[in-house]
Amino acid sequence: MDWSRTKTILIAAFLVLNIFLGYQLWEKKTRVMELAYLNEGSIEEVLSLRDIETEIELTSEPLDMPQLNATVLTHELLEIKGNEGQQIHVQKDQLTASFTDTIDIFDPFDEDAFEEDILSTVTYGDQYVYDHTNHQSIEYVQYYNDFPIFLGTLSFNMESGGPTVVTGYEQVYYHVVNSGTEQTVLPLFHSIRTLLDNQVIPPFSTIKEAQLGYYSQVHEGENQVLTPVWRIIIEVNDQRMQAFVNAYTGAIESDFMQQ
Q1: Angle ∠(233,234,235) on CA atoms, nearest 5
Q2: Distant-in-sequence, close-in-space partners of 186: CB < 8 Å, separation ≥ 6
Q3: In this predicted structure, what is the pLDDT of residue 8?
Q4: Which region holds residue 175: left if phi is over 0, alpha if psi is between -120 and 50, else beta?
Q5: Helix, strand, or coil here: 231?
Q6: I need a surface site. Which of 46, 148, 192, 232 has the fewest CB within 10 A?
C-alpha cells in the first residue's frame, strides 16, 4: 500500500470536509444575521434608512386572546324602539339612518357633547368608542371586552358649507355568540417587521398608531369568525391609512387603505 498517496488523499478529504463544514457554518450565521436584521432591536435602524418616522412604542406586553364567533345584526336592530326622528333601512349587513332634522355639531368637535346628544339615539350606541374624524364623517368603532371590532363601524355623515351638521349614519353591529380558545398574540414589532419586509409602509411616512383588536377577512354573511389583529395606522402625504396584520400568524390581512 502506498501510504504516502493514502495520506495525501486523507488530508485532501479532511480539507474538503473542513471547507464544507466552514461553508455551512458561514451560511448558518448569514441566515441568522438576516433574520436578526429586522428584529426588535434593529427596526429603528430600518425605519431610519427608509425615512419612516414613528410615534408609537414598538414593544408590547405578551397577551392571550381568543377568536370570536359573531353574528352581524341588521334587521334585529329595526325591532328595537328608541329611534324616533330617524328614517332607517337595511342593506346587506349595514343599517342606514337619515335624521328627519339635521343636527348641528360643535366646531371644533366636542366628543362629550356629541355622544350625549347624538350617539345616545343609536341602538347599542354605548358599545361604540370614538375613533377618528375626517372631512366627511365622524367614525366610531364597536368594542367587545375592551378590544375594538374594527369592522363594527358607526359612521356619522357630515355636511358643511355653512354650520356643520350631521345628516345620518351607517351602522354595522356584531353580536358575539361565543369565543374560542385563547392563543398568544404576536408582539407589535413582529407586525411592523412584516410590513417592512413586504415594503408595505412607504418611505417618508409616519406610523401614527397601533392597536390590537378583531377583524375578519370575510366581510359578507351573517356568521363570521373574528380574529385578533394589529391595526397599524400611518400618515403619508397628509392622508391617514390603515392596514391589518394577523396577530396569530403575522400575515397581512389587509394592505394599507385610506381611513
Answers
A1: 135
A2: 230, 247, 248, 249, 250
A3: 62
A4: beta
A5: strand
A6: 46
**pLDDT higher than threshold 50 for residue 35:** no
Distances in whole angstroms, Cα of residue 37 to Cα of each of 42, 47, 196? 6, 12, 11
Rounded distance, CA 187 to CA 201, Å? 18
pLDDT per residue as tens digits for the range 143-156: 999 999 999 999 99
Grid coordinates in use for 176?
A: 358575539
Could you give the percent of the chain with pLDDT greater than 90? 49
Residue listed under C-alpha cell 396577530: 247
Name the 3-class secondary structure at 256. strand
Report helix, strand or coil for 10: helix
Tell me the per-residue pLDDT of 68-100, one tens digit each, with 9 for 90 and over.
999 998 776 666 555 678 888 888 888 999 998
Using CA atoms, how far residue 105 sits from 86, 139, 237, 253, in Å, is: 17, 14, 28, 35
Identity of residue 28: K
Place of cell 363601524: 153
